[in-house]
Amino acid sequence: MRMTHGPARPAFVSLFAIAALLAGSAVALLAQSQDTTIDGRLSSMSGVTLMLTLPDGSLKTVSLLPDTLVLAREASTLDAIKAGDALGVAARRGSDGSLTATSINIFSPELWSRVRKGQWPMQTGEVMTNAQVTDYALGVQGRTLRMMYKDVAATISVPDNARINRLLTERVADLKEGMHLVIRGTMSAEGSLTAGSVMYDLPEKA
Asked: Do residues 197 and 23 lie in contact, with contact meaning Cβ atoms separated by under 8 Å?
């Protein structure tokens, strides 16, 4: 039985790997810099400057830009996906060419406006598809997600163990000391980091 859902609801409510998706202005603004992702605990915050304690105990200063995107990641389900939603789907390609999802991110509108769109192979060997949902089907052959962006159309099987998260756009004011953050941005030749995106996980709902 095919179930087609209505328009996506507004999402103002974050990597698994956002890596390689964001095209924030930090990349264009900083010369002699390189794209990088770090994670750690927020130890302090002063204005637009964060102090992050990295896993090895060292400290890293991170600067925020006016357009730095703050994202909260919450666990979601396939049933929460609606037609028109923009997704990033990492999938394995089978010998027959079929795609089976390993993880799905439901993008907020602000994130969708920045990510690379279409489909391409990743260094992991998986295939990334960033596109919008047309519909999904529930039936005897399992759960199937159909997506399209311009000339890219994809049909992807979604097994029960696929990780599904919704990435919600939040505010800098929502960042609190002690949070575990994943920060993607540009590292200058001097070692300073300017954030294109900051992401944290929301607690799982009871």
From this structure: no
CA distances from 93 to 5, 71, 82, 97, 133 (A): 26, 29, 24, 6, 19
**Local structure of residue 39 (DSSP, 8 states):** E
Q: How far separated are the first and last CA of the chain, in Å rounded?
A: 30
Taking CB atoms within 8 Å and a gap of at least 24, the contacts of 135-138 are 135/2, 135/3, 135/4, 135/5, 135/83, 136/3, 136/5, 136/78, 136/81, 137/1, 137/2, 137/3, 138/1, 138/2, 138/3
> By CB neighbour count within 10 A (0-12 exposed, 13-18 middle, 19+ buried), where does 184 fall?
buried
pTM (2 d.p.): 0.77
**Cβ–Cβ under 8 Å, residues 54 and 38:** yes
Domains and CATH numbers, the chain: 2-10+79-163 (no CATH), 25-72+168-201 (2.40.50.140)
pLDDT in tens, 48-94: 999 999 999 999 999 999 999 999 999 999 989 999 999 999 999 99
Q: Residue 195 in contact with residue 184, Cβ under 8 Å?
A: yes
